[in-house]
Amino acid sequence: MQIAIVGSGPAGFYSLQSLLSKDPPGLRVDLFERLPAPFGLLRYGVAPDHPKIKSVTAVFERLARDPRVRLFGGVEFGRDLTIDDLAHHYDHAVICTGAESDRRLNIPGEDLRRSHSATEFVAWYNGHPDFADRVFDLDQERALVVGVGNVAADVARILCRTTEDLARTDIADHALEALSRSRVREVVVVGRRGPVQAAFSNPEMEELLALAGVEVVVDPNDLVLDARDLAAAAADRSVARRIELLQGAARRTPGAGLKRLTLRFLTSPVEIYDDGHGGVGAVRLVRNELVVGDDGTVRARATDRAETLDVGLVFRSVGYRGVPLPGVPFDDREGRVPNDAGRVLDRATGAPIPGLYVSGWIKRGPQGVIGTNKPDAAETIAQLVADHAAGIDFGPRDRDPDAVVRLLTGRGVRPVTRDDWDRLDALEVERGRANGRPRVKLVRREEFARALAT
Ligand code: NAP
User: Fold this and answer.
1) Which ligand 1 atom is at minimum distance from the Cα of 318?
2) What is the rounded distance in angstroms from the CA atom of residue 179 to the CA atom of residue 4?
3) Domain that holds residue 226
4) Whole-structure pTM over 0.90, yes or no?
5) Are 312 and 142 in contact (CB under 8 A)?
6) For residue 151, how far is its CA from the centre of ligand 1 (angstroms)?
7) Could you say which of 274, 295, 317 is where a domain stops?
8) Does 50 share its domain with 35?
9) What's the rounded Cα separation, in Å, for the pair 119 and 84?
């Protein structure tokens, strides 16, 4: 049973774990990764000041050492290796490429200079090679973060953290340097709906409200609850706790923080204004009210109350979005691969494509924490194993494990192997040790190549 997993983030590794635990006879798994370093969102998405979340990396490292597994880093699906190649050499492939892009606000001014997606900023401060050259002008006094999910919390926190705090993490060196010179003094975070509907998890929000040296401003008027809100809080303890935390923050007497974090609800940007030089100068904010749709969902509706707020930077943090992969069906509206419990479906017939599976955000959309990928992957792998038993697969023609290596070599690709990664990892950790940091990341592809050449 020869399996290709495309993408070595949490979804890829949990798929691998599920396959290894089922231990079908003759199992061999090749794990392909576009970047020179494995672990996807764990390395390039999880905030640097959240080392506990990253501790699952140790589990993934153990899985990668299993003799049934090979790692091929620096191999781009669709360019170095196509879907036809996978069908030629493997029984099944599991696509685990996550959601690499971002949702847009679709408002005027969104593409002005200094208006960014949170995904770009996150990838930049985490040392993603494709984002190393992005420039974030942190000379601005006030930044706006749009969205009240955990990514928004990450972005706001990183903007507010002290250099001393950041310098203890594995944040990319270029970001540490830029953030240490940051002149951002106020971060305004806006949610379009109310606090009851906010997407923050409570630990993330609590952490945000308790940042050292940061004055937190919450308008009590945003926390006025109607009967529906009270019922929601009564029915869900996490909602009640969220409200309690916010009420606590709203009651605090404003202190003299070095920085200020303002959290606002029922507020949406409707236009970003040019500062006269093609950059963000201000934002038009509208006050929303909540309405309940026919399907029972609570939606934000703009009122006629609006204001203009001077801001120099905008980060839209309104969700990630999957990108299409060459040769793999894609639902553009949903931003993910159409599937039935992980079996990829043909767009024309709606029938499963033999041999092809998905797991993670590209399967279910960009929701859930790292651990959510575990049951998600188990579901996909259960389909794969059942199909295998029923003789449903790609029908590969060349199952020689060396054939893939020859194919890649012939295309001028020199994959990063597991042994290579062990060396790179040791080097990063060594570089961090001198400064009391968990690691100092290699960032650019040339740095990885140089490190491997020595
Ligand atoms: P998210 O949790 O889906 O939050 C997206 C936010 O954007 C919501 O507040 C949403 O509001 C808002 N939004 C969407 N469209 C909007 C629009 N047009 N205008 C204004 N606001 C809009 O997404 P995320 O923050 O990107 O996080 C992705 C997943 O990763 C989540 O499951 C999250 O929990 C997880 N994550 C976890 C951690 C952690 O555990 N520490 C860290 C980072 C991310 P509505 O609710 O009104 O749509």
Assistant:
1) 7
2) 40
3) 103-113+143-160+185-317
4) yes
5) yes
6) 6
7) 317
8) yes
9) 31
